[in-house]
Write a structure and sequence with these properties.
Helices cover 47% and strands 13% of the residues. It has 164 residues and is α/β, with parallel strands linked by helices. It has one domain: P-loop containing nucleotide triphosphate hydrolases (Rossmann fold, 3-Layer(aba) Sandwich). Strands 2-3-1-4-5 form a five-stranded parallel sheet, with helices on both faces. The chain is globular and about 45 Å long.
């Protein structure tokens, strides 16, 4: 089987990390957390409650794409997460990479906010949710999953859809 990349997307609080870790563990694939690709400056900016702009996100998206390309070139499948809020961001991540399966995690504002409030020590504060929702362009052609389902049900749906 040729290498596959599963990219979990959605706003903060949608469960990308939880599902990404669980999915990668079930598949025995490496897991790559989008937050690990942010610069210290980006994390500090978000920690102060300031939304990132396109210029802030460009090197972050390029680093994620480079890691995805590295996996593909080495013949390794992997699970990645990235909010990928805009179509232009997804183009950076997906263009010329047909082996990437896009999953969009979606939920209502109240559920997302509650999840963010329950996280301890994360630089992305609940007040930042509105800025993400304001620029969100839901993707076309992605597997769309409602986050109110259990993590096990969501992972099972991803596996069925991706055939893994």
């Amino acid at each position: 089987m040729s290498p596959r990349i599963i990219l979990l997307t959605g706003v903060a609080g949608s469960g990308k990390t939880t599902l990404g870790r669980q999915l990668a563990a079930e598949l025995g694939w490496p897991y790559h957390e989008a937050d690990d690709f942010h610069s210290a400056a980006n994390k500090a900016k978000m920690g102060c409650g300031q939304p990132l702009d396109d210029a802030d996100r460009a090197p972050w998206l390029a680093a994620i794409r480079a890691a995805m390309d590295e996996c593909r070139a080495a013949g390794r499948s992997a699970v990645f997460t990235c909010s990928a809020l805009k179509e232009s961001y997804r183009r950076v991540l997906l263009e010329g990479a047909p082996e990437v399966s896009l999953v969009f995690l979606t939920g209502d504002r109240e559920t997302l906010f509650a999840r963010m409030q329950s996280r301890a020590g994360h630089y992305m504060k609940p007040g930042m949710l509105e800025s993400q929702l304001a620029i969100l362009e839901p993707p076309a052609g992605a597997l769309v999953l409602d986050i109110r389902q259990t993590p096990a049900a969501l992972v099972a749906a991803i596996r069925r859809h991706c055939g893994v």
